[in-house]
Amino acid sequence: MLKSLKNKFFKKPQADKSGNGLFATVEELIEQKQYVSYLKNFHHRLAVSRQAGDVKSAFKGRGIELEELRAYNYGDDVRDIDWRVTARKLAPFTRLYAEEKDREIYVLLDLSPYMVFGTRKELKSVAAAKIAALIGWLCLENKDRFGLYLFSGTQSHLFKPSNSRGGMIAMLKKISAYTKNILQSPTAPASGQAESVSVPLKVLSKVIKGQATVFVISDFSDFSDDLQKDLAHLSRKCRVFCIDVFDALEEHAPQAGEYMVSSGDGKSLIFNTTSKAYRTEYQDYFIARRQKVRDFCLRFGARYLEVMTGADLHKQLKIF
Q1: Mutual orientation of helices 124-141 and 165-184 as an angle, nearest 10°?
Q2: Which residues does 139 contact at the CB level (< 8 Å), separation at least 6?
Q3: Which residues are CB-contacts of 269 (< 8 A; sequence separation ≥ 6)?
Q4: 257: exposed, middle or buried (C-beta count within 10 Å: 0-12, 13-18, 19+)?
Q5: According to DSSP H, which parts of the chain are helical?
């Protein structure tokens, strides 16, 4: 009895394992491992490395052994369409092949100031960090080599592909540190000080020697011509997946009323959304921005996936 009272009133307070949606803690990133099983039944094709592995990867690709047939999905390679089944079912079907290769997989994680935004559950930067961790745990479980390129606009850090738990934990610690650091200076740096995501894309194009797969996790808010050029160049060399992270407020316009917001230079602004025409224009703007990225991916053979903050991330990652 005395021991229980002592523990109740005098025990040391436990550290908070949650970043409250403002930053990603190491514990939260480690917890993403529990969702790996949700992704193992989803399919996509990835490029393979030259090293042979001893297990079949959940990442299906172009190999020798036929894994299964399934309905054609947006972004599938037309070379894998089974035309006989398509003619019989009157709908396109795709062949999936099992690979027994060790894969080299990179994640380019965009944690620039533009990702420090969110109105539901967590910031876009936190959601992106969790997605990167989830991909890393999936690679680790399937003995694929996982590499990470962290980018904050002014700083970057490259982890070479590895397949060890120690290496994975080191990556998660660095991700957590980056999500905390960007909170200290969330506004966009002055013109000329911040780098574009095209910079790490150039680096990856030089670093990756053989075939690999690259996941670009970003909100693609700055989808400039230079970024498109570098992304297209990387797509010709690697299998590229663009994961577009956006907030619910970027899906639907806010309700009619007046809102105060802070601009990038620290000033407060008030904008009025009572006009129906304004709300329509607002919503169309974000739809058009995501459509631009989607059309680009379709043109250059990259896969595209939208992920909205506030909803279960693993349930939206049906690209796997």
Answers
A1: 170
A2: 103, 105, 145, 146, 163
A3: 260, 261, 262, 263
A4: exposed
A5: 2-10, 26-31, 36-39, 83-89, 124-141, 165-184, 198-207, 225-237, 276-300, 313-316
Question: Which residue bears the tokens 């054609």?
Answer: 72
pLDDT by residue for the chain (320 residues), tens digit each?
Answer: 445 544 544 444 444 577 888 999 999 999 999 999 887 654 444 434 444 444 444 455 454 556 678 888 766 777 788 888 888 888 898 887 655 456 789 999 999 988 998 888 899 999 999 999 999 999 998 889 999 999 998 899 999 999 999 999 999 999 999 999 988 765 554 444 567 899 999 999 999 987 789 999 999 988 999 999 999 999 988 899 999 999 988 888 778 888 777 655 566 777 777 888 888 888 889 999 999 999 999 999 899 999 999 889 988 887 65
Note the Cα 40 to chain centre separation in Å.
17
Output the pTM of the full model: 0.76
Strand partners, 96: 68
The residues that bridge with 52 in the sheet, in sequence order, are 101
Residue spans per domain, the chain:
26-43+102-252+294-316, 65-98
Q: What is the CATH number of domain 26-43+102-252+294-316?
A: 3.40.50.410
